[in-house]
Amino acid sequence: MAIKKSDLYSSLWASCDELRGGMDASQYKDYVLFMLFIKYVSDKYGDSEDFAPPVTIPRGASFKDMIALKGKPDIGDKINTQVIQPLIEANTRLARSDFPDFNDPNKLGEGQAMVDRLTNLIGIFQKPELDFSRNRADNDDILGDAYEYLMRHFATESGKSKGQFYTPSEVSRVVAQVIGISAENAVAATTAYDPTCGSGSLLLKVAAEAGKHITLEGQEMDVTTAGLARMNMILHDFPTANIQTGNTLAEPKFKDGEQLRTYDYALANPPFSVKTWSTGLTLGDSGKGDPYQRFEWGVPPAKQGDYAFLLHIIRSLKSTGKGACILPHGVLFRGNAEAAIRARLVRSGYLKGIIGLPANLFYGTGIPACILVLDKENATARKGVFMIDASKGFIKDGNKNRLRERDIHMIVDVFTNNEEHPGYSRLVPHDEIADNDFNLNLPRYIDTQEAEDIQDIGGHLHGGIPARDIDALAEYWQLCPELRAALFQPNRPGYFDLQVEAAQLKDTIHSHPQFRAFIQGLEQHFAAWREAAAGNLRALQRDCQPKEVIYTLSENLLAHAEGQPLIDPYAIFQHLMDYWAATMQDDCYLIAADGWVANTSRIIETDKRGKRKDKGWTCQLIPKPLIVARYFAAEQAAIEARQTELEATSASLTELEEEHGGEEGCLGALDKINKAEVTRRQKEIKSDPEAQEEIGVLRQWLKLNKEEAAHKKAIREAEADLDLLAYEQYPKLTEDEIKALAVDDKWLNTITAAIQGELDRVSQTLTSRISVLAERYAVPLPEVVDEVVKLSAKVEAHLKKMEVSAS
Hints:
Keywords: Methyltransferase, Restriction system, S-adenosyl-L-methionine, Transferase. By secondary structure, the protein is of the alpha/beta class.
């Protein structure tokens, strides 16, 4: 059985619950990540005999040995001495500072509290779904994704001052892609370097783009974070990555002789505007005191170290090197020493581009940042700087903002292809930048303000929709030239009236032959994509790579959507990526592990007292509603029909109770309105000749109550029968039937519905805009004035009758 990503994540986050309370997230993350690390390397390399594993697991130092320590009073000390220490001694790349102290009473509690906490923590990682030795999809980086998941949540919980150990994965992906590394241009000897590597996410994203084991080197000043980076590299199957600890600016670890080592790619997300950047350096005003010649363009301000890291990166690049640095927006426009450095940077031609990001993406700060993209190889031929203002492309995610898949893809596409889009991107010539005193602030060059919706005085005075506003919808009229004439008629030169009723506007647009043909053409266009996608998805086999699956599927959809009028291809792309994250990726991991099988499983819930309760059954790949819809539609329809009858009966019963309830109603006099009370009251008055009306109401209530109960019983029995039919259908399914249910009924039906929603948005946008214009100019000002005069006269007449003066 595959490790389901959502189950893996929930299990890992549950391990955090065992540690919450005694410490904050910036501390307990170290314990959880070590447990993930030791469990993974034990499962993957613990029984390895036929090759030299990248991580050596000494005898007695595996996760199985930790299990044997559960419940023992010295469990914390034994983890330190019998597991962690031997692991360090057997692997030279690991250091004691990489791992937390499992015998720290200040964090883990004292005595039995520590024993219980560590015992429960180990127990969580014993769960069958965390058996990484059986996970056939491990080369698809499921562990790396889990690590990213934890790091993101830890950074969120750690707060402003402690979240800088993690660069958001989405930003790392943008950086890795815009520097231009790929499987086509990377070789085993390709080198990548991060001077402030944190937990290593930027380096790993670059390696992912390279598609092979390139050489990774990084330096991190925080000892604990450097340890996280080393574990991260191993979990991502990059155990040979070299992560050093120390202050990069004052004491760089990667040198060739007495000079900085240079790399094919260098990138960083340094701490923003660090005030102590020059600690340990003796530079002088000219920067000539630096032995590595990093500050020949000028020395950054003493209390703003942003350019110090950028200059370090530039110095660390080969003559053909490419790089990127994430910095606060202030580096684009701040003056004095930074202005001088900025001018030299632009004149050098090294600055290939600037990408402005949304605010509040990063965990250590809420300020907006930008990516400065560097390219030494083509510096002499470069005539400008390519700028992107992507500040508006994001989604809210809790108290942070996050780049969506569509935002990432659009940034990379536009940057890679040098596409100029008004309000988003343009290539700014060096001469224009020089004319602005080398100020690189993006709003100087890219106007992101939306066009103002101008009010027309003539339209308000004399009525009629301005031709200018109708002309602005030209893209619609080009596709459906006769639609414009069907909607509007001339009023006077330059103005038109809507010639259909506002309530009929939507139907008029939808039913127009040209518009209907246009939408049908789009539907046929995407139906062709669906047919091709269905063939590819049915061809999936056991051991397929889910990340390759979604890459191919999404890129094909995006390419299919591009160039189609009136629709946003990136919006359609995002629908697919959202569904992938929510449902489809787990399904693909199941197929990668087990093939096309639809196994059912019991749903067992455990309450706080440990009591287990059977809540029925489920099937992840083929949920019950799909089986019912395809094989038992008649039975389901019968249940729904009975449900309709039940609702009608219940409504009649409610109506009867409302009519005869209250203080004066016969039902209102009952202590409770239920079968026992109504029956009792009926017996009391059955011989009373004056109570015939009340008896009739009571009989009617009992009749409806009986019908309601009968409907409910019939529905319960029918649902139980249907549940059994569906359950018994699963073993009968052939592989082709499973493929049809998963591919057609589940995946592609969902995706197609989302695409249809985007097509519907085309008509909704047009309808909405025309409705706004028609309402805006529906009543000219003179008519409004006349109506005011008439109403004023009526008011005055009423006041006169009441002998009240209007003044």
